[in-house]
Amino acid sequence: MADGGATSNVVFSDGYTPVALATEEEMTASGEYFYTLNTTVVPTVAASAFDWVPTDLSFETSALQGAVTTDVTLDASVNYTLNSSYIVQSGATLTIPAGTKITARNGGTGVYIAVLQGGKIDIQGTATNPVVIASASVSQEIGVD
C-alpha cells in the first residue's frame, strides 16, 4: 500500500484487520491515507526463547514525554529535553533532584509538565543548587525560599 491504495491485494494474518484513522472522504481530500491494525492476536513467543539476547540492557534517555504512571526520579547529572507533554498520573510521583536541568523544545503550549489530581511532583531545588527549567527564550530557576 505504498500509495495508501486499496487493501484488496493485501493478506492479513488471522486476527488482524486494517482500521482507517480518518474517514474515506478526509483521506481522499487530503491525499493522505492513515491505517492501523486492530488485532486480538496473543503473542505466542516468550522472551526466554531468545536466551542469546542480553536481558540486562538499560537505555539512558534524556527525553521527557508521555505519561508518568509509576514513581520516577530524574538524575541531576543528565540534561533532559522536554519534547511534548509529560503528565504525572494519579498515584505516581515525579521527583526532580536539585541541580537538574530540563530544556523544553520549541513547541508552544504543547510542551509542558502537568500533574493530575492524585499525582505528585517533588522538586528538590535549593537556592544554591536550583532545578532549572528553560526554553529557547525563558529560563526559570526553582529553588526553596
Protein model, in words:
By secondary structure, the chain is mostly beta strands. 5% of the residues lie in helices and 36% in strands. The chain is built from one helix and eleven strands. The strands form three sheets. Strands 3, 5, 7, 8, 10 and 11 form a six-stranded mixed β-sheet that branches. A three-stranded parallel β-sheet has the order 4-6-9, with no helix packed on it. Strands 1-2 form a two-stranded antiparallel sheet. The model has no long low-confidence stretch (mean pLDDT 78).
Which helices and strands occur, and which strands form pairs?
Layout lengths: L15 E5 L3 H7 L4 E5 L23 E6 L3 E2 L5 E10 L4 E4 L4 E4 L7 E4 L4 E4 L7 E4 L4 E4 L3
Cα distance spanning the termini = 59 Å
Q: Strand tally, please? A: 11
SSE run:
EHEEEEEEEEEE
Radius of gyration (CA) equals 22 Å
**In DSSP terms, counting alpha (H) and pi (I) runs of 4 or more, how many helices?**
1
Compute the average pLDDT: 78
User: What structural category do the secondary elements indicate?
Assistant: mainly beta
Shape descriptor: extended
Largest sheet: 6 strands, mixed
Which percent bin holds the helix content?
A: under 10%
Give a short overview:
The protein is mainly β and 145 residues long. Helix content is 5%, strand content 36%.
Could you list some keywords that capture this structure?
mainly beta; six-stranded mixed beta sheet; three-stranded parallel beta sheet; 145 residues
